[in-house]
Amino acid sequence: MRELLRTNDPTVIAFSTALLRAEDIDCFVLDVHMSVLEGSIGLLPRRMMVADRDLFRARAILKDNGVGDCLLE
């Protein structure tokens, strides 16, 4: 698994998840429940992971749909 993106914005996570699942790319979001530790202020970013074999396609899909600014290099 490779880290595809990292963001504090839950709408970016939801949109990215929908885009990737529509293309049959499995993704997994980490740090979803960290808000319990931080007091629900959204300070800690969530990370989206994809399989190594899907990383190139997933990056291309997200860039084509305007989510490129959250992608990790």
UniProtKB/TrEMBL annotation:
Residue stretches making up the DUF2007 domain: 1-64
Family annotation (Pfam families): DUF2007
Name of the protein in its database record: DUF2007 domain-containing protein
Lineage: Bacteria, Pseudomonadati, Pseudomonadota, Alphaproteobacteria, Rhodobacterales
